[in-house]
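Anyone able to model this chain together with (2R)-2,3-dihydroxypropanoic acid?
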Amino acid sequence: MTATTHRDEQARAILRANDRGGYSVPNGRVYPFQWNWDSAFVALGFATFDRDRAWREIETLFDAQWDDGFLPHIVFWQDDAGYFPGPDRWQAGGRVRTSGITQPPVAASVVRALWDGGDADDRTHLAALFPKLLAWHRWFWRHRDFEGRGVVVAMHPWETGRDNSPEWDVPGSAIDTANVAPYVRRDTGHLDAAMRPTQIEYDRYVALLDFGRDTGWDHARIAAENPFRVADVGLSMIFLRANRDLLALAHVLEDDAAAAEIGGHLARAERGVGWLWDAAMQSWCSRDTITGRSSGLVTSASFLSCWAGVGDGARNAAMLVHLDRIGKRVRYLMPSLDPDDLGFQMLRYWRGPVWAVVNYMIGRGLDEAGHPQEAKRVRDDTAALIAHSGFYEAFDPTTGAPSGGDTFSWTAAIWLAWARDANP
Ligand code: DGY
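re: yes, here you go
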């Protein structure tokens, strides 16, 4: 058995072990529920050996969709006291208990990947999911681009998926944490606290949760009054790409009305995303909508512009200069924060570690944009990290050491769907 087939088996075993019957947990101890974008990526992994199970992962996620199209970031299908904040704190959901915020909308891109090369059976799955995907995107247009700028505004760091990125430090300092009711963190009971967000960051996460809950999860009111409203470069690029993929699916289904609707929003996003170009940094950066200030930070999300299919020649060239510089500073691309930034921390979650799912989007985007050499480096590095440390949540970009939880579903999925075919 080759090393690759051995790792294939390990990856499949992780997906089977984390399968709770129709949905997967990211990791049984640290994250014992269904997470939105984790499940989407996990479907890509299942698709390599069990297509029905892949569709089921997405379908189960959409079983938790609210009537207004909102798709929560966590679905609490069963109880588990090992995670905070649980359903009692959120007080959200209908048919099933959920969180009240969302997560990066990668599902349409994944569904397009599942469909490509599909047969009549896949078309049935696609046709049933399409209206649900469209409803979720409409929810995004209504509540996360409420100013019509063509970018996606995060109401919570957890919505970006990059929980403790330093992009949220300055906007987050405006959040009042004085009245946060006492709580007990569970994450630091499972993992080294040095790999997790700090206490003040957690207080801010909980303060925003409490704020949303106290509105009764009124998303229009949250959009207007939330103390944290940051146009996230990651969400904006991912949503732009997801709309391209949803448009392609509308064409497959010959739904002209949906195609026209999606196309209109796509055109607005292609115009609006330029607001996230930071000329001083020569990079795509998140921007606080309350103060108008750019984060001025180059993060792994900055490199999602190729995945989104945006950027002119000069901007793309500037991003490749960043990639080349960072690639010389670390052994493994793509660190979640620029290693030349003073806040860079090799093992602390989204302040340095490499994440396989982000590499997948960056690597595929670079390939599609005609940068095969850079794409190869990102894919080779992803495979090398997994070979070095196993299927961890994230990895130290300087040494390849593991960070966070082990036997991680989406790392296993990205191995099966993409990284295993690296050719160093
Ligand atoms: C956590 O609890 O760390 C999650 O990332 C929130 O989604």
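The first strand starts at residue 34 and ends at 35.
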